[in-house]
Recover the amino acids of this structure.
């Protein structure tokens, strides 16, 4: 099987969303291949035996500090074991009893059919699971679990990298602070963080950071060794400093080096560094680290099953742009909180206004300029993706297929963890997005 | 406060038990000072502000991969945040509901008086807490919590490095496997792990490893740069490989290089590498990593409050000799399981014989040769310290003051986490051991 995959070459420039994977260890994950990558079944991480044995055989050993660990197919193991490869910081669930979900399982969901974008023939939801390298999927309807399955490296007591879904947590925390009047979205970043005054962020507003309409010189051309993505990755990687790298260390030092490139507020530009800057902003405003704030405001309030965690930089700062790992059901609890406009079991946990501000969406005009031609009419608000479709659906999205997809009309939350060989969601959207709509339509029909 | 501590120089050779701290990052912690170290109050990690602020000020920033993080007084922060400085692997509590302790708090325990070894005047238990830099203490009597306090970096929902207390978990797992007939204590190590056949471990029995009566060339002379302790530390440290080190990587590679030095079975010699070898043995025998085995056999069975974790080497192998971090109450649950001869809430979780074999102790003759003159009549069995005193007390012990102290006659478990500036327990035993006996005597008196 390895022989097959070794033939695949990494096409570095094909994948813009790869920044998260890249920032993990200064190396891009496999982006796109001309050959067919291993199928989900062929690349099953348990079958492949990554890190199994005492010691694991050389060709199944993923060494700490080596970029190999996040290359497909090894990443199908690593997404469930991020803490084993780097330092982390907990998001405490506190010690309260967990709140179990109610279950109303409906396995007919497997048989829901739909037509993928651009396809002539239909596909079932069950077929999408392998096609999208799903590691775990959970569907909530009316607050009850109607569908839940685990594959690959994930189990119900395991945890999985959320990748850029992390950003929606950062954005939600910021939205909470705005709703509470503790963070002024019109304030200039430089007025909150003087260290960023001279950077490209300095005269951007908090709102522009939250909606990623900042104009920043931040190039993600992986083929150019002088591209900002590489400098960022080296700064974010907790190990490069130990390997002789002498540039900026950590998110905070890196962010100060970012230059302006144009006029803020005109166009949506998906750049992870906005989420890192927002993490800094909310920490400076609250005096709490992002992991502590997330625990205080959300993770300790929903009867979570497991404490979550963030990977950290060399200074112990959590990666607000993509470093969260958590259990599938706990991600679903968060999704349900958002669907419920901030209420959980009758209690208003976070302000209703914080969720309303997400759901209303951002500028569709600004989004249109962003180079996401397939996501017609969408916008980006508080680090959530807003579809503006008939159901008013919105989503948190991360590379390799991570998602929290919320459809208020269907009263539905879908959470999916995955390890697709291609980082960019454009690789699985043609299947995933119509599949989610089909499930919503089925549930709206009263099952 | 820092000025005061900067005057203290590290006396490298004074502290034999420092191996655990050293293995963390190839550097010894502050061992002993001629001046008085900062007091517990002066060195309080919250007051000192380690890693507080966004970013923390330079003199409070502990960088990943820097040896500073485990130097006193910074170690008073780091003992609660080990995962923030290195890769880790979880010991899952599973998703079962937690089992709360019954409480029967008796604050009069604070006022129990006793005479420290060699002292003329008495001290109260409360006074010992500051003197021993206690971060958390919990006393169980008849299975109920009678005393529980947190200090320094620790809170009830926090976790703390157990240091060499970890070894007693490794030893208990081995004792379970022996009781179940799955591990032959008379088997030669080389027959179980062929890779160790040619090493000093090869012709030692499993029993000799479990009781640390192996004769190994393993020098802990910190002043000699060629001392084995330094090679071990570099191998164990997940980062040295990234810094140009090209020796053996990880516990398994290092253990193969250990040479024999004398005759196995004659003398107790406290060497952490025995616990690492035992971890390898039980993994090879069961096909499970030590963290998985600990979860399956113990951590998922006691209604633990938190999943625990191990620090790992560059190959993801848990540090069986000292890498466990856990919550205080969960350590107490384990202590109570052992006190109860393997039963927990009426159910036999681990074989009674496994505990009986610990409690019977090892060779006092072999122990006498070990250079622990203050621990008269003690022995070492299955990686537990057996006092052979009138109460039949026995203990798990780790550097800087970690302990699980079990007194079957008093039906008592004391668990203490601490961050004493001196690694070796000989620095706090003159206070700690008579204090524990005084608490036992008080509880035996029916409170």
């Amino acid at each position: 099987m390895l022989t097959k995959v070794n033939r695949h070459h990494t096409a570095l420039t094909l994948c813009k969303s790869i920044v998260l994977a890249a920032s993990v260890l200064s190396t891009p994950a496999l982006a796109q291949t001309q050959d067919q990558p291993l199928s989900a079944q062929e690349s099953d991480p348990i079958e492949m035996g990554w890190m199994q044995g005492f010691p694991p055989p050389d060709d199944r050993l993923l060494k700490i500090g080596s970029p190999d660990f996040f290359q497909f197919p090894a990443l199908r193991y690593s997404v469930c074991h991020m803490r084993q490869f780097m330092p982390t910081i907990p998001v405490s669930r506190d010690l309260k009893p967990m709140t179990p979900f109610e279950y109303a399982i409906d396995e007919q969901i497997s048989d829901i059919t739909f037509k993928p974008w651009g396809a002539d023939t239909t596909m079932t939801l069950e077929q999408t699971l392998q096609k999208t390298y799903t590691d775990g999927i959970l569907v909530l309807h009316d607050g009850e679990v109607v569908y839940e399955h685990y594959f690959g490296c994930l189990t119900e007591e395991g945890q999985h990298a959320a990748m850029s879904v992390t950003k929606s947590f950062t954005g939600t925390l910021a939205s909470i602070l705005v709703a509470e009047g503790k963070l002024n979205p019109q304030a200039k970043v430089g007025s909150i963080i003087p260290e960023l005054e001279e950077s490209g962020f300095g005269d951007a507003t908090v709102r522009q950071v939250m909606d990623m309409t900042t104009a920043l010189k931040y190039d993600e051309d992986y083929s150019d060794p002088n591209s900002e993505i590489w400098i960022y990755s080296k700064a974010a990687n907790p190990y490069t400093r130990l390997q002789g790298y002498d540039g900026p260390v950590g998110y905070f030092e890196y962010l100060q080096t970012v230059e302006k490139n144009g006029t803020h507020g005109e166009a949506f530009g998906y750049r992870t560094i906005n989420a890192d800057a927002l993490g800094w902003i909310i920490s400076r405003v609250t005096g709490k680290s992002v992991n502590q704030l997330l625990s205080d405001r959300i993770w300790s309030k929903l009867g979570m099953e497991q404490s979550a965690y963030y990977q950290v930089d060399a200074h112990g700062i959590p990666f607000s742009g993509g470093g969260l790992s958590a259990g599938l059901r706990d991600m679903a609890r968060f999704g349900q909180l958002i669907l419920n406009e901030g209420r959980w079991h009758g209690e208003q946990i976070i302000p209703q206004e914080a969720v309303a501000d997400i759901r209303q969406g951002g500028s569709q005009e600004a989004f249109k300029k962003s180079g996401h031609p397939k996501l017609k009419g969408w916008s980006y608000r508080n680090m959530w993706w807003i579809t503006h479709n008939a159901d008013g659906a919105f989503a948190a999205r991360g590379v390799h297929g991570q998602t929290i997809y919320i459809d208020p009309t269907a009263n539905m939350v879908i959470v999916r963890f995955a390890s697709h060989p291609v980082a960019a969601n454009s690789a699985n959207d043609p299947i995933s997005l119509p599949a989610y709509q089909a499930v919503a339509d089925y549930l709206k029909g009263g099952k």
